[in-house]
Amino acid sequence: MRAPPSCPRWALLALALPVLALPVLALPAERLALLPHGEDHGDAALEPGDDVHSAALELSTALRFYGAAVHSLYVTTNGIIAVNEPSSEEKYLGQFPVSFGAIAPFMADLDTTDGRGNVYYREDSSSDVLQLASDYIKRGFPESAFDPSSVVIVTWKLVAPFQAPGEDHTLEEKRNTFQAVLASSDSSSYAIFLYPEDSLQFYSTYSKNGDENISAMVGFSQASTNYYFWEKPGSYNVIANDEDSIRNLYKSSNAGKQGIWVFEIGSSSDSIVPAKISSILESIEPNEEDQEMTSKPFTSDYGSTEITQQYITGSTDSTEEDQHLSFYSPQNFPTAKAPPRQFRIQQFPPQPPQVIDVEEFDETGIVFRYHTDVQQTCANNRHQCSVHAICKDYPNGFCCSCIAGYKGNGRQCVAEGSPQRVNGKVRGRIFVGNNPVPVVFENTDLHSYVVMNQGRAYTAISTIPETLGYSLLPLASIGGIIGWMFAVEQQGYKNGFSITGGEFTRQTEVTFLGNNEKLVVKQKFSGIDEHGHLTISTEMEGRIPEIPSGSSVHIEPYTELYHTSSNVITSSSSREYTVTEPERDGVASTYTGAYQWRQTISFDECIHDDSPPSAPATQQLSVDSVFVLYNRDEQILRYAMSNSIGPISDGSADINRNPCYTGTHNCDTNAVCRPGTGNRFFCECSIGFRGDGNVCYDIDECAEQPGLCGSNADCNNQPGTYRCECVEGYQFAADGRTCVAVGLYVVNHCQRGTHNCDIPQRAQCVYTGGSAYICTCLPGFSGDGRACEDVDECQQGHCHPDAFCYNTPGSFSCHCKAGYRGDGFRCVLGEVEKTKCQHEREVALGSGGAFFPRDARVGHFIPQCDEHGHYLPTQCHGSTGYCWCVDRDGNEIDGTRSGPGVRPPCLSTAAPPVVIGPSVRPDTVPLPPGTHLLFAQSGKIEHVPLEGNNMKKSGAKALLHIPDKVVIGVAYDCVDKMVYWTDISGPSISRASLNGGEPTTIIKTDLGSPEGIAVDHLGRNIFWTDSQLDRIEVARLDGRQRRILFDTGLVNPRAIVLDPVRGNLYWTDWNREAPKIETSYMDGSNRRILVKDDLGLPNGLTFDPYSSMLCWVDAGTKRLECMNPNQLGRRKIIEGIQYPFGVTSYGKNLYYTDWRRDAVVAVDRTISLENDNFQPHKRSRLYGITTAFAQCPGGHNYCTVNNGGCTHLCLATPGGRTCRCPDNTVGVDCIERN
C-alpha cells in the first residue's frame, strides 16, 4: 500500500500563512456543535464492519461536483462519501486521487465492528437543517446568495482505527468523530466539514499491506474517465495529508470559526473553491509548527505535460518526508486540473499613495547601452533581438519589440502567462543590532518562482544564519523586485519586465527609523540564461535592527509609486511592520517598526523609437498577501507576495477588481487571463501551449515541424518553446540561428565521419590537426588505411600441428583436434577434463540423481550444460516443469523458481572461452554524429544509428569488443559521451568514451551480479542494481564514493532508470513470488511500490524525459506497458511479444531486445504497432539497451551547479537535493544535509 501523495513543501508555504498571520485574538470558544444526527433524527446506520459501504443513496436534488451532476452517493466506513460505487479498500486506501470519485472528510482505515462507533447518514430538506447548513456556508461565503433545497448529512461518530493483532495497543481506546454536510441547490453545491474540539484522537492508521502507518487524507477527488486503452484520472484537491495537518483541523478553519471548513464543490466552475475568511479566527493560538504548508504536484491528463508548481526552496530545501502542516488555506487552493488560485481573504484599508519628488539620479552604472556612435540597422543586428521579437529600423538606429503573445522589451521576451523562474547568488556583510561583528555570507543561493498570471512571486534565500535570518524578515522587497517585474498588468500599464526585459541594476537604500540604521542593497539582473531562467546577483551591506530569534513578522498590504524617466525608474516609500516576539511567561510582546525605502532602477531602453510611451510615467504597484518566514532548521529565508500594477488610486472606488487583475481566475499556470467587461474574463493558453486555457498542454514543435532547425542542428522540445542546438562541428553564425561549420576551412573529418578511411572494423582515422588526418589499418588487417584486407594468420602456422586454425576478420583461433586437449597452440593426447556440470550430469544419468535428492520422489533432475561444459543459467526439471536460475557453481538462486511453462530470465555468469591469439582491439570505435541505440550482446556492445524514428540498419556496427565479458546493462552519459556497462562474469562496472579509446573498469570489488545501470548526467552519478547482493547502490561517475541506497526488500532487482530533473528513481524486481516496480527519490527517501498487480517478469524499464512516461517490458505477461508515474492508470502498448529483456525510448518509438528473436524490435507507442526490427549479423542473446542522445535532454536539478554545494554525493529530490556521504567515510571530511 502506498503512502498518500504528499505535497512539495514550498508549494503552499505562502498560501496559508497570510491567514495564520492575521491578528489573532484569544477569545473564549463556543464548542462546535454537529448538525443533528442519529437514528432519532431519521438517519440510516451503516452496517458495522471494517470495509462497508451503503447502497446507493438516491438524491432528490443532484449534487454538483467538479461541474458535473451526481444523482446518487455511497457512504463508507472509511471516512469518504463516494460518487460511484467504491472498490475494496485495499485498492484505494493510502492512495489519492481515487478512481471512483470521493468527498473525503477523513479517509483512513476505520473500523466499526463490535460496537466501536457508528456511521449515520441521511438526506434532509427540513427548514431548520437547511438553515443551519446555510449559516455555515455564509460564514465562509458571506456574499453568496446560496439557498439550499437539500442537505446530505454523514456523521462518523466515535469510530475506531483498524487494529491488526499484535499492533500498538495505544490506539485501542482512541475514537474520532466528524461530520460532512453536502448542501445543494439546482445550480450549485457546497461541502461543510465539521471537526469538534478534541474529536480527532488518532491521525493515521496501520497499513494492512505493510509495516507503516498511513496518514489520513482529507480532500476531494473527481472520478476517473475510462478510455479504451487507459484510464484518465480526474481532478483532485488535497486539504490535509499528514499527521500534523490532520491534528490542526479542529484548531483551524477557513470560515472564521475553528473546526469549520467550507468549500464550493460544484457550480458553473469545474473546480473546488475554498471559503473566504469572513472574520478573525475564534480562539486559535498560532504556533510555529503552523507556519509551513505543503502542496502536491498536480497533473491533469494521461501522457500530458505536468502542470506542476515547481516552487523553489533554495538548494537546501527539505524533501516531501519533512513536513509539518499540509491543509490548504482559503487564500489559495490548488486543483489537480488547475494551478493554485488566489482569493482575497480580507479587505485591508489601502495605504494612501503619496506623490513623491523624483530625486536626482544617483549613477549606479547603466546595464547596457542600446545604441552606439555608429548607426546600426536590423540588417546586421537582428540577433540582438529576442527570437520572439521583431526588429524595426528608425532614422538613427533600430529597436526591438516582442511579438503578440509575448512580454518584454524586445531584447528579452517571455510568453504571456507562462510561469517564470529566477536564479541567482546573494552575498552580504551586515551588522545586526549593536553587535560590533558583522555577519558575512558569500555565494548564497536565491531562487524565485513566479505564477505570472497571478502576479504571485515566491522567493527563497538559503543558508542565511539564524543570527541574521529573523532580522531580515521585514525586508520583503529584496524579493519584491521580482514581484514588480512580473506584476499583473492592468490595461495600459507595464510591469518591470515589459519595461526592462529583466536587464537592469537596482540600488536601494533602507533607513530604519528610530536608531537610523542603514542598509544598502545592490542587485543586478542579467536577463534570461540558456535555461530560460532570469539571473540575478545581490549584494547587501550595512546595519539593521535586531529581531529576536523565533519572532514572526507581519507586513500589511501596501502600495508604491514607480516613476519612469529616460532609463531610470525611482521609487520611495515608508513602510511599517509588526514584530511578535516569542512568548515569555505566557505573554508575547508585539511592537511596530518602520523604515524608509528609496530605490533607483537603471536600465537600457531603446532611444531611437520617439513614439509616445505606451505606459504612464507614474504607475502604482499594489502588493498584498505579503508573507515572510525564516526557517531556523533549514536556514532559509522566504518571501511571498501578490503584485499588480496600474493607475494611482486611493482605494475608495472598487475599480479594476476583474479576476485577471486580482488573481482569482482559474486559468492554467501556462495561460493568459484576458479581462472582459465587469468581472468577465477568458483564459488563453500561452504561446507554445495548446488547450482551452483552463488546462494547457505543451506543443512539441520539433515533432510537428520537422526540419525546424535546419540540417545542421538538432531540435530539442522544451515547455512552451524549443531549442536548436548545432551538431558537432558546427556553431551558430552571427544571426544566432544558422549553424555553420566551425572555423573557415578547419574540419575534423575523423570526428564528423567525413573521412575516406575504411570502415571502423578494419581501419582507424587519426586526426593530425587542421583539416588533416591519416588512415591506418587495424591489427589483423593490411593496406593503406583507405582499403584494408584481412590477414590470414592461418597461413602463417601460428597453431599447433595437431590443431585446427580458424581465420576470423582481424584475428584467428586455434582448437585442438579430437583426441587432443590444450589451448590450440599446444595440444597433447588425452581427453579434456570434465567440468563440474558435465560430471554431475553423467552421475545423474547413471545413478538416478543422487546429487538432487529433493526431486527424486517425482523424477530425476538432470543438470543441463552448455557446449563448453558450463551450467546453463536456466535449469528445468523434466518431470515437474519447474525452472530456476543457478549461479556458475550450479547453486539455485533464491526467488527465481517458476511454475511449469514459465522460464525465468536467468543470466549466464560464465564468459565464453577466451580466443587465443591476436584479437580485435578492445578500443571503442568512434561514433558518427547523431542519436544511436546502444545494446549489449554478451561480449560486445553494438550500435544502430537512428534517422528520425527509424533504425538505419545499414550503419549498425560493433562499438566495443570485450569477448571475455558478459555485458548485461548499458547506460549513456550524454555530457561526456561515455558508455557505461555492467559485467556479471567479473563481476565489474566499466566505461569507455564514444570518441574512441580503451575501456576502464571503475568498480570491481564488493559486487555480486550487477545488472541494471543508470547515469545521472546532471548530478554526475551512476546507480546500479545487484541481484546477488540484493541491493541498489550509487557512486560518482568514476566509481568513487559508493553508497548503498537499499539492501532490504529486494529479491531480484534488475532494471533501473532515473528522472534526474524531478529527482526520481525507478527499478524493477522480478521476484517470482511478488514481482514489482518500485520508486523513490534519488537520495533513497520516499520509497514506495509503484506497480505490483498483473506483473510477471518485469525485465526492462525506461523513462522518456520528453513525455515523462515510464515504460516496461514483461517476459511473463509478454506485454509492453507505459504509465505516467504521477498518475493512476497503465496503458498496454503491445501484447503477445516473445521474451523481452531491455527497453529504451526515442521519439514516438520504444525499442526492446528480445531473447527469442535475437533482435531489437521497434514499436510505435502512439498506435501500438511494431514497425521494425533489427537482427545483428551474429545471432545470440541481446541484453540491455539504451539511447545515446545527440544532445542531452533539457532541464537541470539542484546538483547541476557546483555539485549542489555538497562535499561528496549530491542526490536530487523533487525540488531540492540531499548531500550524502559514502558508506566508507573513515578519515573523510564529509557533511550530510537535506
Automatic annotation (TrEMBL):
<keyword id="KW-0964">Secreted</keyword>
<dbReference type="InterPro" id="IPR024731">
    <property type="entry name" value="NELL2-like_EGF"/>
</dbReference>
<dbReference type="Pfam" id="PF00058">
    <property type="entry name" value="Ldl_recept_b"/>
</dbReference>
<keyword id="KW-0677">Repeat</keyword>
<feature type="signal peptide">
    <location>
        <begin position="1"/>
        <end position="26"/>
    </location>
</feature>
<dbReference type="InterPro" id="IPR011042">
    <property type="entry name" value="6-blade_b-propeller_TolB-like"/>
</dbReference>
<feature type="domain" description="EGF-like">
    <location>
        <begin position="698"/>
        <end position="740"/>
    </location>
</feature>
<feature type="repeat" description="LDL-receptor class B">
    <location>
        <begin position="977"/>
        <end position="1019"/>
    </location>
</feature>
<dbReference type="Pfam" id="PF06119">
    <property type="entry name" value="NIDO"/>
</dbReference>
<dbReference type="InterPro" id="IPR001881">
    <property type="entry name" value="EGF-like_Ca-bd_dom"/>
</dbReference>
<dbReference type="GO" id="GO:0007160">
    <property type="term" value="P:cell-matrix adhesion"/>
</dbReference>
<dbReference type="GO" id="GO:0060070">
    <property type="term" value="P:canonical Wnt signaling pathway"/>
</dbReference>
<dbReference type="GO" id="GO:0005509">
    <property type="term" value="F:calcium ion binding"/>
</dbReference>
<keyword id="KW-0272">Extracellular matrix</keyword>
<dbReference type="Pfam" id="PF07645">
    <property type="entry name" value="EGF_CA"/>
</dbReference>
<dbReference type="InterPro" id="IPR000033">
    <property type="entry name" value="LDLR_classB_rpt"/>
</dbReference>
<dbReference type="InterPro" id="IPR000742">
    <property type="entry name" value="EGF"/>
</dbReference>
<dbReference type="Pfam" id="PF00086">
    <property type="entry name" value="Thyroglobulin_1"/>
</dbReference>
<keyword id="KW-0084">Basement membrane</keyword>
<dbReference type="InterPro" id="IPR018097">
    <property type="entry name" value="EGF_Ca-bd_CS"/>
</dbReference>
<dbReference type="InterPro" id="IPR009017">
    <property type="entry name" value="GFP"/>
</dbReference>
<feature type="domain" description="EGF-like">
    <location>
        <begin position="746"/>
        <end position="789"/>
    </location>
</feature>
<keyword id="KW-0106">Calcium</keyword>
<dbReference type="Pfam" id="PF07474">
    <property type="entry name" value="G2F"/>
</dbReference>
<dbReference type="GO" id="GO:0005604">
    <property type="term" value="C:basement membrane"/>
</dbReference>
<dbReference type="InterPro" id="IPR000152">
    <property type="entry name" value="EGF-type_Asp/Asn_hydroxyl_site"/>
</dbReference>
<keyword id="KW-0732">Signal</keyword>
<dbReference type="GO" id="GO:0017147">
    <property type="term" value="F:Wnt-protein binding"/>
</dbReference>
<keyword id="KW-0325">Glycoprotein</keyword>
<feature type="domain" description="NIDO">
    <location>
        <begin position="105"/>
        <end position="268"/>
    </location>
</feature>
<dbReference type="Pfam" id="PF12662">
    <property type="entry name" value="cEGF"/>
</dbReference>
<feature type="domain" description="Nidogen G2 beta-barrel">
    <location>
        <begin position="418"/>
        <end position="655"/>
    </location>
</feature>
<dbReference type="Pfam" id="PF14670">
    <property type="entry name" value="FXa_inhibition"/>
</dbReference>
<feature type="domain" description="EGF-like">
    <location>
        <begin position="790"/>
        <end position="828"/>
    </location>
</feature>
<feature type="repeat" description="LDL-receptor class B">
    <location>
        <begin position="1020"/>
        <end position="1062"/>
    </location>
</feature>
<dbReference type="InterPro" id="IPR009030">
    <property type="entry name" value="Growth_fac_rcpt_cys_sf"/>
</dbReference>
<dbReference type="GO" id="GO:0042813">
    <property type="term" value="F:Wnt receptor activity"/>
</dbReference>
<dbReference type="InterPro" id="IPR003886">
    <property type="entry name" value="NIDO_dom"/>
</dbReference>
<dbReference type="InterPro" id="IPR036857">
    <property type="entry name" value="Thyroglobulin_1_sf"/>
</dbReference>
<dbReference type="InterPro" id="IPR000716">
    <property type="entry name" value="Thyroglobulin_1"/>
</dbReference>
<dbReference type="InterPro" id="IPR026823">
    <property type="entry name" value="cEGF"/>
</dbReference>
<feature type="disulfide bond">
    <location>
        <begin position="876"/>
        <end position="883"/>
    </location>
</feature>
